[in-house]
Structures are given as C-alpha cells and as structure tokens.
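Re: that backbone. Tokens:
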C-alpha cells in the first residue's frame, strides 16, 4: 500500500514538473502573442475604469450617458498616446545635436578622475564614448519604431474586440458551468480580479502622472535638457515596482552631471527627484491603494524578477497586475489558497477577494 502511494506521489510530482516546464516554454516562446494580449487586457481594464468614472459624472440632474462616457474614455487614451509620440519625436533632433557636447563633457569628467581610475582605464573610457555615434543607430531605431507601431495597432484591435465581447461575458461565464450557482461564483471571482486590477492601474496611472509632472517642473526650473522626455520616462518607469523610480531618477541625474560644469545641479536633481518619488510613492500611493492590494513586498520583488526574465522590460510592467490576478484566483480555490496566503502581506486573503469560491461541488 505504501509503495503504491509512493509511486502515485512520484507520478504526480513528475506531472507537475512537466506541466510547469510546458507553461514556462509557452510563456517564453509565445511572448510575441501573449505580451500584446496582456497589455490589451490591462488597457481595456483602464478604459472600463475611466468609462465608469465618466458615467458617474452628473451635470445637475443630468447624468453622462454610457456612449458619451465611452467616447470620453477612448479620447483620453488616444490623447495620451498622441502626447507620448509627439514628445519623443519632437526631441530626436535635439538629442542628436546635444550628443557631441555630452561626450566632450564626459571626457572632461573622465580626465578629472584619472588619479582614481588610472591612465589606462581613463583612456579606454574616453575612446569608448568617442566611438558612440547616434546617427549610426538611427536605422535600428526606425526598425524598432516600425515594430512598435505594428504591435500598437495589434493591441488596439485586441482592445476593440474585448469591448465587443464584454457585453456578452456574463452570459458566457455562466453558460460554461452546468450549475448556475457555480457559474455565478466564477463570475464574481472574475469581477473581483477585474476590480482589483482596475483599481491598481487607475491609482498607479494617476500617481505616476503626478510624479512625472512634479519631476518635470523641477527639471524645467533647474534647466535640465529634454525635461519632457525624462518626465515621460519617469511616468512609465514608475509602473515598475521599486527599481523603476531609481532608474527614473538616475537618468536625468546623469544628464545633469554632463550638462553642467558644476555638481550643484546634479545634487539638486538627485535630492529633489528622490524626495518627490518618496513622498508620492511611500505616502500618497499607499493611502490611495488602501488595503485592496495586500501583497508581500518580497513576493513583488520575486514577481518582478521572474516576469522580467520571461518577458523583459514589458514583463516588469505587468508583474504586479499578474500577481494580483494569481493571488485572487488562488484565494478562491481551496487547494491553492496557500499560494494566495504566501503572496499576501499579512496572510489575510479574504478582505479584498470576496466570498465566492471555485471549490468543486
């Protein structure tokens, strides 16, 4: 009896290892298909959240109709995309024109550091920076831009079809289960997942926009080159947990180091941008998020590293929403509840995940 149970356990373990391997292989080799789909689902959730917000607006006794709310939500997203493209394209020539000046300043800094680095290492760094030519990288940049545009069009198509399908999603979910009550439970679970992801995306977008605007004002007052580009980059990097804000401060700080002849602007940029990120990220954001995303910081770091390894920089952006999805689904499956407990911050997985269960009947 014990031998047969041992064999059964080994067989189950072997099947689990094979299943994990197949899933990992699918995530890696299917990234071309899965990444645009995941991004489109997040954008769709953000659009739904904006449409609901616009639909709740009232002008006296009149309420904004659903169709107008949808138009306003789509207009906001398209305006955001237009601003991103306009900011990036408007500063390409300025970056190319300023690059020789930055290289000369870097060579001066390296020359000043000769006594610490040594003559040989300083010469190697000086030669490496002198060989960097942005004009030679333009063809690769245009190829990347073409790929980005194709992916963007694909994402927009996905979002459009998701809007069409969302009207029939409730009926489809209930029809998937022979028992109507279990279908309703599954729908409640998916609603809980969608609501948590929408709240995270909405709050994170607002907080990131506020961080980018405040940093832009500071950089403009100091006189940092390409302040709009760095503010845009800070906005996007703020979606990457923990390390995103560090990178967002480091890049404009390096520009300040090579742009000015003194260290004053560099120190000022580091201090002020770090203060803005700490004040908004450590005080305002937790207040807005509340306890709806009760996630372990260590689990967030692991999720960041895992999805960054699987899907690169896009995976880092998607790591927290995916973790929210996994945590809520596991909280509703009795056999996988322990996973949700491990991913949570304090072990409480009932407060934000609802009461429905996907346990078999």
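Recovered sequence:
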């Amino acid at each position: 009896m014990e031998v047969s149970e041992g064999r059964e356990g080994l067989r189950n373990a072997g099947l689990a290892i094979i299943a994990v391997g197949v899933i990992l292989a699918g995530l890696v080799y299917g990234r071309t298909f899965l990444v645009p789909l995941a991004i489109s689902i997040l954008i769709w959730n953000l659009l739904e959240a904006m449409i609901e917000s616009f639909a709740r607006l009232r002008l006296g006794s009149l309420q904004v109709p659903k169709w107008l709310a949808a138009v306003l939500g789509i207009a906001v997203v398209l305006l955001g995309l237009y601003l991103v493209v306009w900011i990036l394209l408007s500063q390409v020539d300025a970056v190319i024109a300023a690059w020789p000046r930055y290289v000369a300043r870097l060579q001066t800094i390296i020359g000043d550091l000769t006594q610490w680095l040594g003559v040989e290492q300083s010469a190697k760094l000086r030669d490496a920076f002198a060989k960097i030519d942005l004009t030679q990288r333009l063809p690769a940049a245009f190829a990347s831009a073409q790929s980005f545009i194709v992916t963007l069009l694909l994402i927009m198509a996905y979002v459009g079809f998701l809007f069409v399908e969302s009207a029939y999603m409730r009926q489809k979910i209930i029809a998937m289960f022979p028992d109507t009550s279990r279908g309703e439970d599954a729908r409640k679970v998916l609603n809980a997942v969608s609501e948590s992801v929408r709240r995270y995306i909405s709050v994170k977008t607002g907080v990131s926009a506020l961080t980018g605007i405040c940093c832009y004002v500071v950089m403009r007052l100091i006189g940092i080159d390409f302040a709009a580009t760095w503010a845009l980059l800070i906005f996007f990097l703020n979606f990457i947990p923990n390390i995103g804000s560090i990178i967002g401060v480091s890049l404009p700080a390096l520009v300040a180091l090579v742009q000015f002849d003194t260290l004053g602007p560099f120190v000022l940029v580091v201090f002020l941008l770090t203060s803005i990120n700490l004040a908004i990220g450590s005080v305002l954001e937790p207040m807005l998020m509340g306890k709806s995303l009760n996630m372990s910081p260590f689990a967030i770091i692991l999720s960041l590293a895992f999805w960054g390894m699987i899907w690169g920089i896009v995976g880092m952006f998607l790591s927290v929403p995916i973790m929210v999805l996994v945590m809520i689904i596991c909280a509703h499956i009795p056999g996988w509840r322990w996973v949700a407990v491990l991913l949570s911050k304090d072990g409480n997985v009932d407060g934000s995940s609802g009461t429905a269960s996907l346990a078999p009947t």
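The first helix runs from residue 2 to 29. The first strand starts at residue 58 and ends at 59.
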